[in-house]
TrEMBL record:
It comes from Chryseobacterium piscium. GO terms for cellular component: membrane. Signal peptide: none annotated. This is histidine kinase. Gene3D superfamilies: 1.20.5.1930, Histidine kinase-like ATPase, C-terminal domain, Tetratricopeptide repeat domain. It is an enzyme of class 2 (transferase). Residues 375-418 form a coiled coil. Residues 480-671 form the Histidine kinase domain. It catalyses: ATP + protein L-histidine = ADP + protein N-phospho-L-histidine. Its EC number is 2.7.13.3. The chain crosses the membrane at residues 418-439.
Length: 673
């Protein structure tokens, strides 16, 4: 019972933090153009707008003021936007800028209008051949992706980033904006639980911004994003390092609205460290800044944390009131994943309070919405896009190497031409020229061989990444389906049995209960079979007790009255990486399943041994044997085996005749990490 409650708390925390990450992304996007020193920034813009300068400078000031006030005072923002438009009628660049800042003005209030404005900005800037156009096109594409996120999902936004915005901004050479785009990509990866990749892109962003914009708001939020990523992984000490860096940047500006985000980061840190009493003051301080600057989204995120703490303090009625207020305010539930989280929270909270009928209502809403969402597919799609982006980067490296090679060959040709001119000077110089020519050609050939080897290594690395992504995706899908069967359908069938039993005790006569009990026994058997299937998809013993125990359970599972399986483990390391254990388990599972189905064997020997980084698998049976090319089904099974063996950089040998089959496999446990 206590284990269930603990697991539920952990899962709740995960869902809650996932909700936070996506909205932090939206919040950062809306703040990207406003420096931390907000007052000095707005005052300088007003000075330019009120001074006697040319219309272009005034128009730019009005547009930037419109963006500054768009969350604080919508009417004032609109007024500045129209003033900028009035000064831009005959200037193509400023007309394009008007559409760009009009998109910003509507970004939070009307995403359809914002999308139209950003597309107009892209069209207009594409006609203007200046460097500044690349910046606005890249930013407009990304903002257009933000407007479509709720309809198209995160894969669409990532596609825009890696195919439109980042390549465009690389042409512009705006390192500050490139760092900010890397930071945005990291947030999306964090939201989809790809923490290692997110940290990689956050690190890229921070490196660029510390060098090119060391006091910028983009760097401030990159620090906060990285801290949030570590909080989600329950690594509070790592998160604090980046929070301290963010604090140094915001400390000189106590009136800045960005303080709301800083206190939100502090709140996450204290929750991660399980210091709820210290988190509450951070929430109250953050609410002051968030409400002052009309940051409705961030305000609701603070209340979400307050709900979480109240529930942990067992103040259930107060927690319920906070959660229901957030739900009625509707800011956070625009995103379907967040709506699903709220339904789940309300279901579990009402169950904890004893409101079972209300809990059931929210549970049905949660189940219905959960069935319509496929987070694993989203994650796989994001991985494909991110892998495609990495591949494109590798191709750029290859292109650079080819260019370098061509330049070297050109240099060699020029050198050869020069040397041949010197041939006519003397025989001695002729011999020297020939020697230099052959020596240079040898060097070029060696470089070409090294270059080809490097290209081959890059191709092998990419092939390994693709194989890894496929196998990991397959295992995650097995785990998801197994969990849905065990926790979802299995739980529902168990509930049906309980309800039947309760009904029978009140409505059936004793003489009718025997037949009814037989039906209940059949239902019990069905539940057992269902859970066997779930365990087969992702065996709990592998996750809880390790590979040796899981293989022992697998052998016992396939043992029959007419089939004996002798499992002999020898020095199996209990500290093997989980990915290696899962692949070894799947290899043995595939072989045993084929042997049980097709071999007609009476005895099977399964021996697993390990010597340092080498893992050996031997499986022998006394069945009828098989031809490796005779059955399409078996050929597919052998293909799957070969894929997993190659993934672990292993070797496989199969010997089969009418007296039985022997399979020997040698694997490298250090092939993957």
């Amino acid at each position: 019972m206590w284990s269930f409650i603990l697991n539920n708390e952990i899962e709740t925390m995960k869902n809650h933090l996932i909700t936070i990450c996506v909205f932090l992304s939206t919040y950062i996007q809306s703040q990207q153009l406003i420096p931390l020193n907000e007052k000095a920034y707005s005052d300088s813009l007003k000075t330019v707008a009120n001074s006697k300068v040319d219309n272009n400078a005034k128009a730019n000031s009005y547009f930037l003021l419109s963006n500054f006030y768009r969350n604080i005072d919508s009417l004032l923002s609109k007024n500045y936007l129209e003033k900028g438009k009035a000064l831009s009628a005959n200037t193509p660049v400023n007309t394009a800028k008007y559409h760009y800042y009009e998109g910003w003005h509507f970004l939070e209030s009307n995403k359809e209008k914002a999308a139209v404005s950003f597309q107009k900005a892209i069209q207009e800037f594409s006609k203007i051949k200046i460097k500044e156009s690349d910046f606005f096109i890249a930013s407009s594409w990304y903002n257009y992706g933000v407007t479509q996120k709720n309809k198209e999902g995160y894969p669409f936004l990532v596609k825009i980033l890696v195919e439109k915005s980042i390549p465009q901004i690389e042409k512009y050479k705006d390192h500050k904006t490139l760092g900010q785009f890397y930071s945005q990509l990291a947030i999306i990866l964090t939201y989809n639980a790809e923490f290692a990749k997110a940290f990689e892109y956050n690190t890229k962003a921070i490196k660029i911004l510390e060098k090119n914009a060391p006091h910028s708001q983009e760097l401030f939020f990159a620090y906060l994003n990285t801290a949030s990523n570590f909080c989600y992984q329950a690594k509070g000490d790592e998160a604090k390092k980046y929070l301290d860096k963010a604090e140094k940047l915001i400390l000189p500006y106590p009136e800045s609205s960005a303080n709301a985000s800083f206190y939100y980061g502090k709140t996450l840190y204290f929750i991660t460290k399980q210091k709820n009493e210290e988190a509450l003051p951070m929430i109250e301080k953050g609410l002051v800044y968030a409400k002052r600057s009309n940051q409705n989204l961030l305000t609701q995120m603070f209340y979400m944390n307050k709900y979480d703490i109240l529930r942990k303090q067992n103040k259930l009625n107060e927690a319920k009131n906070v959660l229901e207020n957030i739900l009625s305010e509707k800011t956070l539930i625009i995103d379907a994943n967040n709506r699903k989280t709220f339904y789940n929270q309300l279901s579990s909270l009402n169950e904890q309070m004893g409101n079972l009928k209300e809990a059931l209502v929210w549970e049905k809403k949660y189940s219905k919405l959960n069935d319509s969402l496929s987070s694993e597919n989203v994650k796989l799609e994001l991985n494909k896009l991110e892998t495609k982006f990495r591949t494109a980067e590798k191709q750029k490296e290859i292109a650079n190497l080819n260019t370098e090679k061509a330049q070297k060959e050109l240099e060699i040709n020029k050198k050869n031409q020069y040397l041949w001119l010197l041939v006519f000077a003397s025989l001695f110089l002729l011999i020297l020229i020939i020697s230099i020519f052959f020596y240079t050609k040898k060097l070029a050939k060696e470089k070409e061989i090294n270059h080809s080897q490097k290209l081959k290594e890059i191709a092998q690395q990419e092939e390994l990444k693709i194989t890894k992504a496929i196998l990991e995706g397959e295992e995650k899908e097995r785990e998801r389906v197994g969990k849905d069967l065990h926790d979802g359908l299995g739980g529902m069938l168990a509930g049906v049995k309980i309800n039947f039993s309760a009904w029978a005790s009140q409505n059936l006569e004793p003489e009718n209960k025997q037949n009814f009990n037989e039906i209940l026994n059949q239902l019990d058997y069905s539940v057992t079979e269902l859970r066997n299937i779930a365990r087969n998809l992702m065996p709990e013993s592998l996750l809880k007790f390790g590979l040796e125990t899981a293989l022992k359970d697998l052998s016992e599972f396939y043992t029959r009255k007419d089939l004996n399986i002798d499992f002999q483990p020898i020095d199996v390391n209990t500290n093997l990486p989980l990915a290696v254990q899962i692949n070894i388990f799947r290899i043995v599972q595939e072989i045993l399943a084929n042997a049980v189905k097709h071999s007609e064997a009476k005895n099977i020997l399964l021996q697993c041994s390990q010597s340092e980084e080498v893992f050996l698998i031997t499986i022998e049976d006394d069945g009828k044997g098989f031809s490796q090319d005779s059955s399409p089904t078996k050929s597919m099974g052998l293909h799957n085996l070969k894929t997993r063996v190659d993934y672990l950089k292993g070797k496989m040998e199969i010997n089969s005749d009418h007296e039985g089959t022997a399979i020997n496999i040698e694997l490298n446990t250090h092939a993957i990490s």
